[in-house]
């Protein structure tokens, strides 16, 4: 067991080699750079280095909490989770937890194909994706066939934005720190408007984003994309990209420009730029959203659940987490109830602001 910052260069390179041999998409959340960034802001972050036959067989990044309650690294913000293992290596999960001094290991975006943990999944979710492997023109043509009104309306709004607010300009990899601060302010305001917890009010998350914003490696690069109208930013997104996957993470827009749907325009330009850079997949993440349904070409499964061992820590996990998870699932699976819950959250947010 190591702290993420204690991983040596050889271990990090072996981690990358295992990911390269995996059949899963090269999601940057599964790379050592993301784990190291979390380790710099989360004191309970660890990496278990697994050996088999005298050779390294894999890595399990995790966080350890009170009474040994464990969780996937960066749980709550990480959009892909799991162990990084040599093909054919499948340790006993509970023995692994005991070796890590964990009473449980919770995950909410477990990568598909994780044979170590998928038997303990309580729910399967869809992570929405945009496939641009055949190039952006092919993707736009597919949208034109599947959602002609959506594409026509969005492109018309982009042209209107240019006429009324200034020339539309898109920067795929913006390095201006002020643009990132603007995005975070927009996102915080969005969280408050919708009655949800403001992630950027948590210092460890702002610290994590700040570290990843300056991370530049082939398989994990922080990428800030900005849509401008004239000199004014109207929409932005911060995410992580590998050589083949752009993991979409924090999108937001200026509500003063909402009539132009700048967030949708931004995502189309991100898809275009990603395809031009040789990136074949944009992963929009799990969670229902109208814009995801409009933009997606398909879905990938991710899993939520936990492995537990006997003991007080595991019992506390089940008592503290399972009732809330089941309640969320009950509401989520009933669209009318979910819509009512969203209206209630927004109403509560308005009362707090008032």
UniProtKB/TrEMBL annotation:
<dbReference type="Pfam" id="PF13480">
    <property type="entry name" value="Acetyltransf_6"/>
</dbReference>
<dbReference type="InterPro" id="IPR038740">
    <property type="entry name" value="BioF2-like_GNAT_dom"/>
</dbReference>
<protein>
    <submittedName>
        <fullName>CelD/BcsL family acetyltransferase involved in cellulose biosynthesis</fullName>
    </submittedName>
</protein>
<dbReference type="InterPro" id="IPR016181">
    <property type="entry name" value="Acyl_CoA_acyltransferase"/>
</dbReference>
<feature type="domain" description="BioF2-like acetyltransferase">
    <location>
        <begin position="151"/>
        <end position="292"/>
    </location>
</feature>
């Amino acid at each position: 067991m190591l702290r993420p910052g204690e991983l040596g260069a050889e271990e990090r390179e072996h981690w990358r080699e295992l990911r390269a041999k995996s059949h899963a998409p090269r999601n940057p959340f599964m790379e050592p750079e993301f784990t190291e960034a979390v380790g710099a802001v989360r004191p309970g972050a660890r990496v278990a280095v697994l050996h088999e036959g005298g050779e390294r067989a894999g890595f399990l990044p995790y966080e350890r909490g009170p009474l040994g309650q464990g969780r996937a690294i960066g749980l709550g913000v990480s959009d892909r989770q799991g162990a990084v293992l040599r093909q054919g290596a499948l340790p006993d999960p509970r023995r692994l937890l005991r070796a890590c001094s964990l009473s449980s290991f919770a995950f909410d975006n477990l990568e598909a194909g994780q044979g170590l943990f998928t038997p303990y999944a309580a729910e399967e979710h869809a992570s929405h994706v945009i496939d641009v492997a055949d190039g952006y023109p092919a993707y736009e043509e597919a949208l034109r066939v599947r959602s002609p009104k959506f594409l026509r309306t969005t492109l018309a709004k982009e042209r209107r934005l240019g006429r009324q607010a200034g020339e539309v300009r898109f920067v795929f990899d913006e390095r201006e720190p002020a643009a990132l601060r603007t995005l975070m302010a927009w996102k915080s305001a969005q969280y408050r408007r919708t009655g949800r917890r403001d992630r950027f009010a948590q210092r460890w998350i702002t610290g994590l984003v700040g570290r990843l914003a300056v991370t530049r490696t082939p398989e994990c690069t922080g990428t800030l994309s900005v849509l401008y109208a004239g000199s004014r930013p109207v929409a932005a997104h911060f995410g992580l990209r590998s050589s083949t996957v752009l993991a979409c993470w924090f999108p937001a827009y200026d509500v003063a420009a909402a009539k132009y749907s700048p967030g949708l325009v931004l995502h189309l330009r991100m898809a275009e730029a990603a395809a031009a850079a040789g990136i074949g997949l944009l992963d929009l993440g799990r969670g229902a959203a109208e814009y995801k349904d409009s933009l997606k070409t398909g879905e990938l499964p991710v899993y939520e659940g936990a492995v537990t061992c006997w003991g007080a820590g595991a019992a506390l996990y089940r008592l503290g987490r399972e009732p809330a998870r089941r309640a969320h699932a009950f509401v989520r699976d009933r669209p009318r109830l979910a819509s009512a819950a969203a209206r209630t959250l927004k109403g509560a947010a308005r009362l707090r602001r008032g």
